[in-house]
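#dry-run=false #mode=assembly
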Amino acid sequence: MARVRLEHVSKHYDDVTAVDDMNLDIDHGEFICFVGPSGCGKSTTMESIAGLTKPSEGEIHIGDREVTNLPPKDRGVAMVFQNIALFPHMDVYDNISFGLRLRNYDKEEIERRVERAAEIVQLEGMLDRMPDEMSGGQRQRVAIARAIVREPDVFLMDEPLANLDAKLKVHMRTELQRLHKELDTTIIYVTHDQEEAMTLSDRIAVLDSGRLQQIDPPLVCYNEPANLFVAGFIGSPSMNFAEAMVTEDSLSTANFSLAFDPASVKAVDVGDEVTVGIRPEDIYPGGTRVEVEDSSSLISTRVDILEPMGDEIFAYMLLGERRTSMDQSRADDQLLMSVDPDSTIQEDTDVEVVIDRENVHLFETASGEALAHGLSPVSAELKNETTADADN
Amino acid sequence: MSSATDGASDDTGPLARWARTAIHNPRRVYRALFYVAMAFFMVTTVFPFYWLLVLAVTPQGNLLSGSFLPTVDLFGVRGTFPLPVPKGFNPTAFVTVFEQVPFHLYVLNSFVLAATTTVIVLVVASLAGYVFGRIEFPGRALLMLGILAISYFPPAAFVIPLFQAFAGNAPITIPFIGVPLFTPPRLLNTPGSMVMPFSALFLPLSIFILTTFYGQIPDGLEDAARVEGTTRLGALFRVIVPLSAPGVATAGVLTFISVYNEYFFSSIMATSPEASKWSPIVGGILSYQTQYTTQYNLMAAASVVGVIPVVILVIIAQERIVSGLTAGALKE
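#status=ok
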């Protein structure tokens, strides 16, 4: 049973703090993704778990043991590296069996395990090849075989798919999931690709500037982001943000307002500055057919750019008085909407849109902390009033 | 080349003509330069070896009489043959070499000294090269500079203090205070008195070479080895050193050859040129020279014999270097 626990782990370099007071509790058999932009500390955290980097403070536990000061070889971890890191002077068999040979397993046992690992990653018949005779995907599979052959308690994968081409990446992604099902070990996976994190993991740990922002199942991170950073990072394309002022009956942004009862959210008072977050898929063209239960009032916009993706169209909308492309310096004046591919909207036309109020996120502007996910329905009376407001 | 050059050739000399065609055909210049360079290389490196062979097979009585450059008479034209040829043929010199003095023991001495030094230098320089090449620490550049600075010292500067220390009769004292610490054992006429200074003198170069090579091995490989189950030291010797084989071979061959040919230190640390006192090859060669005779043919034959082990070593090392262990499996 390999539970991985990080308690108050920090890593300071001369002038930067790579990891800041990280607390994590990863269950046995869990697939965890560390995700975040470059330099957020995800690799450093992983290296601390592997033992390649010694944390400045804090404790790391794997299973029942405290491993903070143990060398990497005694931690029962195996790692797959971003640059694959096969030993170029050894053939595939020697690469895979390297760890076993160091641990003095007997020959038959090594042979049996290597063959089994090669079978799992579908490398049969390639055991006598040298790494430089193999393709990128094959090398990556050798690296994975090298990791699984030791039957480690914890798998660490540091952006293992980063160097593969798009098609192979998707293929290896499913292979990894299959592998996880088959092996039933804890996997910690580092990536900067939120899509990879969403599809692979049981829980996502979102990191930014050395701090853990949120650790939750993918859909929770998506639907209930803990703060502005997570909201902006998870989801592609990313969430629309607009700064708003809380009034007695609405959230008033520079270009539109949403009916809102300040009493419905505990931490909000009239006059507070909040940030409204709306995902592109929660905005709908109004007027024609509104399939949203609790929609906002109509907001008039102008279509600036359309990006057809095939299964959907991303529409960049301009808000506010002067709706011209030239004058879009402020993010507040832009709204990204995802619409059906059979939609008839055209570039440079005026369109009225509605927002699905159930999926509007509220954040405190100053701290970035989430205040509410979804606005509670307001009475029809109030709604009409704000509509009138917006029209004025 | 063209008719214009042909027309101009009438009123100019051959060199000017050659230069003119060469301008249009630079490959001729390259070939000419190649021959010049090859000739220079042959004269400076291969000719001395040939000259040794000529001397070695010339019977001793013929050495000092007549010329090594024979006069040839070719259909009435007399001239001097430009290459020295042996005056007579006496291959037994290669046997006599071992009969007069135990020359094989001198070769063995040099070989043992060189091999021991090479092993010590490679092990210590590997550790140092790992630290300098792969670990960041304050003062690294300064320390490296210090090591390189030592290698610029003239070795002669160390001879007197080292001889005193190895003589084993003067106690080591604390400088300026004069408090004696301990009396070192007598190391003169033992391999220790030679291997130690050799190792110290040839370390800086090897450290420098290995630092460069070890520094280029990607961190990922070392990390992978450590996660797989080696210590840092294990990763160094199992992954980094094998991948730096060309560098290790270079450092090893340079050290080996330098020590194998070394005479200055060993002539002093071995108090007389006897094989039992660990005198090296040069000591052996010089012992064909006695108070009244100098057997040039034997000295030449001994020199040729002494070169053979090094030639073998270089051929082996060459193969190792060429065998190309550097092909990368790393996707960068």
